[in-house]
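Hi, does anyone understand the following?
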Amino acid sequence: MNFSYVWYDTAHWLLSPARAASDLTKHFFDNPGNPLTNTPYGRTVSAACELFERTTRRYGKPVFGLPTTVIDGAEVAVMERIVWERPFCRIISFERDHPTAKSQPKLLIVAPMSGHYATLLRGTVETFLPTHQVMITDWTDARMVPLAEGRFDLDDYIDYVKDLCRAFGPDLHLMAVCQPAVPVIAAVARLEAENDPFIPRSMTLMGGPIDTRRSPTAVNRLAEERGIEWFERHCITKVPPSHPGFWRDVYPGFQQLSGFMAMNIDRHLTAHYDMFNHLVEGDGDSAEKHREFYDEYLAVMDLTAEFYLQTVEKVFVNHELPKGEMMHRDQPVDLMSIRRCAIMAVEGERDDISGVGQTLAALELTPNLSSDKKLYHLQAKVGHYGVFNGSRFRSQIAPRIVEFIATHDREPARKKASRA
């Protein structure tokens, strides 16, 4: 049995006194009444204490923190409301106090279930708040779900997406960021095959692993080289007794974070060294930007073992979706069934997680969807994160998505008018 989670929790508990002492020391050297506070020595001790505390703490779930947006030039309040909930997910709706808000297109952002919380897409949500009725999947940390609530695997994920389309459709637009691209397009394919009346009007797939045989990245190659048995043996452990999900098999967030950081360890070490220097030099603005980024980046959640292992096996090892071999509840996931839901594929030129061509495959694997319902956007000079956040996302990618959604949101009205 893999006891890594027990050792991780134990180490965190054992370091608690040291973190408390470090925090007290920092406050002592930050106190304006202390003559050493503004000296090089005082700032150095304070900076060292802060870095120690930050690198040994467990980061809690961040908040979206989007109190207002601007619609038609007017600043309006934004309220978060839970509009749908299941054991492993809830839907947050960002409701705005403006007369035209209810007439805007409905956009459900399906956030990745890949270690980080949905708040990683805070910038994505913020960008679309002025123009759309935005909702987002807020996935639950698996260690917080009691074992009595049952399993959650890739089939359940697809069922959740289908249920969400029925709950908020048929005038719904989906946006899948990275990992959800596969279950989202699979859910739509099943809805289309079942001739379901709640087929969404469009889906935007952003940096998703539809066909990882194309431009394989280090992540893709690792999965193929190691095989599913290696991941099951080295990555899966049980939740310790101190959490509600005690004894559930999970892929822990701290292990995922270790993998993320190992891919760019030099960059992370340099960033922390720079923060230390910023604190010593009194550069509060630069230090605060570092805090904001890592408060988000270091907050991670556990995944259920069955979901993680199925995803690795079906998506990254066996490539079942592009081969036409993927099944859902003993029914085929046939992308050729997609005839009505428009698809936009967005990729980043420098994406080192989902290589160029992996998301584009969605357009090529749906030959029965007319060309006027397909759109491809390759964004120059951005990596994986830049596909859904940052200045180029806001100025170049988002406007194309807004136009794409608007085109297909109006389509039923145009068809109805033409028939009349």
In short: The longest strand covers residues 74-86. The chain has a mean pLDDT of 89.
